[in-house]
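Researcher: Batch entry, complex prediction.
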Amino acid sequence: MDNLIQFAYIISAALFIYGLKQLGSPATARRGNMISSTGMLVAIVAALLDQGIVDYQWIVIGVVIGGAIGAFVARTVEMTSMPEMVALFNGFGGMASLLVGLAAMSPTAATFTLVTIVLSILIGGVTFTGSLVAYGKLSERMTSAPIMFAKQQMVNGAIVAGIVISALLFINFPDTGFWLFLVVVLSLAFGVMVVIPIGGADMPVVISLLNSYSGLAACAAGFAVDNNILIVAGSLVGASGIILTQIMCKAMNRSLTNVLFSGFGSGVQETTEVEGEIKPISVEDAYYVLEAASSVAVIPGYGMAVAQAQHVVKELMELLEENGAEVNFGIHPVAGRMPGHMNVLLAEADVPYDQLLEMDDINPRMETVDVAIVIGANDVVNPAAREVESSPIYGMPVINVDSARTVFVLKRSMASGFAGIENPLFYKDNTRMLFGDAKESIGGLIREFS
Amino acid sequence: MIPAEVFLTFILMLSIFLGFELINKVPATLHTPLMSGANAISGITVVGAISLAGTGHGDAAQWLGFFAVALASINVVGGYLVTDRMLAMFKKKEG
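Model: Structure tokens for the complex:
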């Protein structure tokens, strides 16, 4: 029977791997997710065949309660709230691994097992509380500003030292439960401490990193209970989170250490003089320009989702296409609040995915674009990132909308963007500002067309 | 016979490299479903928790296992369902 279970785990691992491979294209991704979930089902059924199980009652109760909560959340969550949900799920995964690590504890265990128990508790604990803080910041249940206080580094250092010492003591004296208990408490405290100094704008990096940790915690738990499917699945998730973290850091031109330790936005002051003047445009004049355009690029930012404007944008896109124009969307990697977030929001508004272009695909063709429409985006289209060396975002890759023949910027007022940085784009000769609520402005354009 | 810890570490090493290869091929468009799908896969801890929750000992370890089963089940069920919900919205241009 034990051999059968192990073979089932191999099948399950193969299904996870194949499922992830199918995620390589939007056309096959949904099937890939089905395949991956079949792999999970196989693994769970195999685990239930374990002969050490004599009482199924609590397993069933746990699966039913957890499954019901999961199903409810999955059905009801808004697409705009996806970052919060992923943050919360990262935390649950971390906590589950912490609990498995604790439950696997036995004073007679080998040193290697004790080390892996400590690791699953440490990574799981940091993931759990770190994710709860990230959830609080993303859902605005707590301030999204960085929380810093005097001697913060010293407190963090003391916690790390405390974790190392109590972990070593636990491994040497596993009979005393106290040291393990201390590792649990300090890990939970450390999770809070690492995430509170990170500002709201950097949360895409943080949830990617915590996503990775939740996988690594499962990996460590796999070592603790001697189960290789946990190791395979956990390391796939760990690798995924690390890659996304790198992509997010690169898109913001910042190193991971800079994101984790600097508290972005605290005291960034910039004094660039911007040449030129702001040129507003009316909805009617904007319509005449769009009516004559044969190629239009829409550059959305999170402001578009806040204004709930994606559905009217899609409507405008259809009218432009009927008018003979080619319409594409240029999506910056940090346009939303988590990796790929903007794509999901636009897919929800029925924008076909083949019209969602990545930054590196839209930039080379920007010169042939007649009108680039910037909606709710600011820093990701800021030419200062290319031109102004003193700018805090200098070096960050941006979408070069200023190369388009005409740029429309939809903006509520002249206030600076999220990072509080002046945007020279607004003063360029080919830029026209369409002031007002994005949803109403687009609605006005739609009325002009029909 | 290879010692268990060497064997497990060997698996770890291979699957990390495999993970990097696989995930690098996922287009940016699908990064959010990738993350929620990863949430679901990290719920694999449920497999480790099941045997701990079913010992029938009624001790602390069993209760820890029970809570782990419940939490990991949220991830598994919620993660796969929400990923499916998102992926169903991705459509190609018709015609």
